[in-house]
Write a structure and sequence with these properties.
The protein is mostly helical. Helix content is about 60%, strand content about 5%. It has a single domain (about 10-240), classed as Glutathione S-transferase Yfyf (Class Pi), Chain A, domain 2, CATH 1.20.1050. It has twelve helices and four strands. Strands 2-1-3-4 form a four-stranded mixed sheet.
Length: about 325
C-alpha cells in the first residue's frame, strides 16, 4: 500500500484555546481560508510566536517558500492569503463584478468595525486581558517575558484606542452585525455570504464572529448584540460545525536531512527571487529573536535592580499597573 500524499502546505498558528481552532483571530482567518479553499495543509500549533520558524504567527510554509509578512499578525494573514491567491487558491475567482463590489464593501465593514472590536475586547478590557489574553499569548515563554510581551501588546492597543470610547467601538460592531445579518437574509440560497460557494469574506468574517460569540475574552456587550441576530448566529454555528468539524492533520516533524535539502534548494541559482526573499525573512527572524533576547535581559535587569522581581512572581505584576483603561 502506498503512503498517503503529504500536505503541500504547513500552517504555523497560535495554539487552539477557548474551544476555537486558534487563540489568534488572524490565525483563525488563514486556517478558515485554507479550509474553504480545500487546500491540502497540515497544522503546527505553536504556544507562542517565538516557536514559529520566523518568530511570527500566522506563517505558511510551501516547499522552499516561507510566508509570514512583515508587521503584526493581521499583516501576516494578508500576505499569506495573497500568496495563496497567486498560487491558484483564489476563493473570490467565481464572483461577478457586482459581487466583487459587495465583497470590497463588506470587507471594509468588517475591518473597520469588527476587527477593532475584537482587538479592543482582547487587549483593552482589563478582565479579559488578565484572565485570558495574557495567558494565551504568554504561554510557553519564560518569566518575565510571559508577562512583558503580552503587556507590551496591551499597551500598544491602549495607545491605539486612546481617543476611542468603548461604547462607540461596540456600537460600531453592533451596526456591522445588523448589516451583515441583513445581507445573509437577502441571499437566495447557500450557506455562505455569496451563496453556495465560499469567498474570502467568509474566512474574514468568521474569524471575528467566532471570537465574539464563543471566546471568554468577548465583552458582554458584543455577546448580547450578536445574540440579537438569529441568522448571523446560525451562520457562525454552521461554519463551526461544517468547516471546522475536524482538526487539521498534524504536520510531520522535519528531519535534519529535509532541512538540509530545503536549504540547498533555496540556495540554488534556479530559485532566484525565492533566495532573495529567504534572506530577508532570515534577517527579519534574526531581528525578532535578538529583540526578544534583548527585551528579556533588559526586563530581568530592571526588576532585579529595582527589587520588584518578587512582585511579579507572587501576584499579577504588570496587571496592577495603571494602564489607563479605556472606559
Amino acid at each position: 500500500m502506498s503512503a498517503p500524499d503529504q500536505p503541500k502546505y504547513r500552517l504555523y498558528k497560535l495554539a487552539s484555546r477557548w474551544g476555537l481552532p486558534s487563540a489568534s483571530p488572524a490565525c483563525l482567518r488563514v486556517e478558515g481560508y485554507l479550509r474553504l479553499a480545500n487546500v491540502s495543509v497540515a497544522g503546527e500549533e505553536c504556544t507562542n510566536s517565538s516557536t514559529s520558524p520566523s518568530s511570527q504567527l500566522p506563517a505558511l510554509e510551501h516547499g522552499v517558500d516561507f510566508v509570514d509578512g512583515f508587521g503584526d499578525e493581521n499583516a501576516a494573514a494578508e500576505a499569506i492569503i495573497d500568496y495563496l491567491r497567486e498560487h491558484g487558491h483564489d476563493l473570490d475567482s467565481h464572483l461577478s463584478a457586482c459581487q466583487r463590489a459587495d465583497l470590497m464593501a463588506f470587507t471594509a465593514l468588517v475591518r473597520s468595525c469588527l476587527e477593532p472590536a475584537t482587538a479592543f475586547t482582547m487587549w483593552c478590557e482589563k478582565q479579559s486581558y488578565c484572565q485570558h489574553t495574557r495567558v494565551a499569548y504568554g504561554a510557553g515563554l519564560p518569566l518575565p517575558l510571559n508577562y512583558w510581551i503580552p503587556w507590551s501588546q496591551r499597551r500598544a492597543a491602549l495607545h491605539r484606542f486612546s481617543n476611542s470610547a468603548k461604547e462607540q467601538v461596540y456600537k460600531d460592531a453592533a451596526a456591522a452585525y445588523r448589516a451583515l445579518d441583513q445581507r445573509l437574509r437577502a441571499k437566495r440560497d447557500g450557506d455562505f455570504i455569496f451563496g453556495s460557494r465560499p469567498s474570502s469574506l467568509d474566512a474574514l468574517l468568521f474569524s471575528h464572529l467566532a471570537f465574539h460569540q464563543g471566546a471568554p475574552v468577548s465583552a458582554p456587550e458584543l455577546r448580547q448584540a450578536l445574540s440579537e441576530h438569529r441568522v448571523l448566529m446560525a451562520y457562525v454555528e454552521r461554519m463551526s460545525q461544517e468547516v471546522f468539524s475536524e482538526p487539521l492533520p498534524r504536520a510531520p516533524a522535519i528531519t535534519s536531512a529535509e532541512w538540509a535539502q530545503r536549504a540547498e534548494e533555496a540556495a540554488s541559482p534556479s530559485q532566484g527571487r525565492k533566495k532573495e526573499i529567504s534572506k530577508k525573512e532570515a534577517e527579519w527572524s534574526k531581528g525578532n529573536k535578538m529583540w526578544l533576547t534583548g527585551a528579556g535581559l533588559a526586563t530581568v535587569a530592571y526588576f532585579m535592580l529595582s527589587g520588584q522581581y518578587i512582585t511579579i512572581a507572587t501576584d499579577s505584576g504588570y496587571d496592577d499597573e495603571d494602564d489607563g483603561d479605556i472606559e
